[in-house]
């Protein structure tokens, strides 16, 4: 079984440092900045479920100009669909259930 994480993070930065914070975040692997509104940055982080993933998000706070970070969304996708297929088959359905 392999897990893949998708997280939405709100990063609050000093307005005068927002462009530098955006550049630092964008340079990180698996990190994408979707919006910057006067220092309020909407960021997604994607990657496998491991310690490096959590450390990457925690490291946002170390970027100069970042005031705070808030995890606002977290989804874990798994490649193991066997339980969903088994549940569907036992209920007499022919469609696969998708998370």
Describe the overall structure.
The protein has 99 residues and is an alpha+beta fold. It has a single domain, classed as Alpha-Beta Plaits (2-Layer Sandwich), CATH 3.30.70.920. Helices cover 27% and strands 40% of the residues. It is built from three helices and four strands. The protein has helices at 18-26, 51-59, 82-90; strands at residues 3-13, 31-37, 40-48, 66-78. The chain has a four-stranded antiparallel beta sheet with strand order 2-3-1-4, with helices on one face.
Outline the fold blueprint.
Layout: E1 3-13, H1 18-26, E2 31-37, E3 40-48, H2 51-59, E4 66-78, H3 82-90
Antiparallel strand pairs: 1-3, 1-4, 2-3
Q: Give the tally of β-strands.
A: 4
Topology as a string of helices (H) and strands (E): EHEEHEH
Query: Which CATH first-tier class would you pick?
Result: Alpha Beta
Biggest sheet architecture: 4 strands, antiparallel
Rg over alpha carbons? 18 Å
Arithmetic mean pLDDT: 81
In CATH, what is the homologous superfamily?
Lrp/AsnC effector binding domain/regulation of amino acid metabolism (RAM) domain
In the sheet with the most strands, the strands line up as: 2-3-1-4
Termini separation comes to 15 Å
Which structural category do the helix and sheet elements fall into? alpha+beta
Instruction: Name the overall outline.
Output: elongated
| CATH fold topology | Alpha-Beta Plaits
Oligomer, anyone? single chain
How many structural domains can be distinguished in the coordinates?
1
The assigned CATH architecture is 2-Layer Sandwich
Unreliable residue stretches: 82-99
Strand content: 35-45%
Number of helices: 3
């Amino acid at each position: 079984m392999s897990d893949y994480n998708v997280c939405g993070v709100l990063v609050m930065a000093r307005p005068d440092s927002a462009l530098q914070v955006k550049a630092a975040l964008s340079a990180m692997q698996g990190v994408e900045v979707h919006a910057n509104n006067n220092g309020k940055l909407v960021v997604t982080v994607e990657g496998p479920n491991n310690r490096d993933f959590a450390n990457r998000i925690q490291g946002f706070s170390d970027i100069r100009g970042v005031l705070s970070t808030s995890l606002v969304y977290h989804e874990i996708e798994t490649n193991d669909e066997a339980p969903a297929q088994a549940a569907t088959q036992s209920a007499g359905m022919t469609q696969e259930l998708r998370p």
